[in-house]
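[INFO] parsing input record for UDP-N-acetylenolpyruvoylglucosamine reductase
[DEBUG] input buffer:
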Amino acid sequence: MPDALPASLSATPGVRPTDATFADLTTLRVGGRPAATVECATPDALASAVRSLDDAGVPLLVVGGGSNLVVGDEVDGLVAVVAVTDEQPTVVGEDATSVIVRASAGTVWDCLVAWSVQHTYGGLECLSGIPGTVGASPVQNIGAYGAEVSGLLQRVQLLDRTSGELAWVTPDTLDLSYRYSNLKFTARGVVTAVEFRLTTDGLSVPLRFGELARRLGVTEGEDHPRRPVAEVREAVLALRAGKGMVLDDADHDTWSAGSFFTNPVVTGEDARDAVTARVADHCGAAAVEGMPCYPAGTDTDGRPQFKFSAAWLIERAGFPKGWKIREDAPAGLSTKHTLALTNRGSASSEDIVELATAVRDGVREVFGVSLVPEPVWIGVTLQD
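[DEBUG] output buffer:
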């Protein structure tokens, strides 16, 4: 074992050191070399490794596919703990209409989705093609095309890093909301395995997202439209590939953290109307009619909230697909989708920060909307 690791790790089954850097471990492909990197092949190995490092006072970062991380170039003191597995998902419970499927944290997310579709289980198909691992899915409450993990979770196996206890918890303990859980931006717990409740009739979740629904021939009058899971997965993968959102080593548009900014939510009709007025002033009244703006529930005081499209605002603030701060910049917006910030082959974390700052500040100046980054930042920050 490397000197940065406690000796107890050498006797832990399923734990092995590697020489991977954070650039190797993240989909943005930026980040420096950690003090050490260890792979953990089972939930028990992952829990044991984290306990050993915590007991020794060694700073660590658990990496679950690295699809939602921006890591700095100077991270010498940090140990990267990587969840990996060769285990297949398993059915651990069933009733007349559903099954409970368990997958370890190191399972590649899209492998779980493909497995579920192969077995004609419904629920995960709209989340096809999302990079990362199963362990990261509840942390981020991943979602796409009208579906979110929060609607499918049965239980999460969680290592409490304060007590060292490994236990199954229910979704209501995680404060799940749009791209958020109380595990995100904190080090309080590590997900080691996840259970999902999926349907067994071979049909998808109701299709609510317009682009996907149109591709699958959903008509306006259909009530809770559903389609065979294999058809939905194929359509989702095609849509994501067209936006550079399916990983491809040869395509720099996929060297990204996916959707970099969350869709902004404002509270109250006055706030909504203020954004609308800024759009009309900058883009013309006709643009308002086509501007995506959707009801997003209410806040804790019962005030209505409204969600805007970050991608739409970014493009109309003057940042088209492929935009760069300067022509030779090593980072730029995807040539396929304005919401993805991409490494064009040689970017550093500071290049990503510079690009993100320019886009965020530009949208705020034009439309008065503050975009919030979706990734977790390690060893680097986006300054106000």
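[INFO] The two ends are 40 Å apart (CA to CA).
[INFO] shutting down worker
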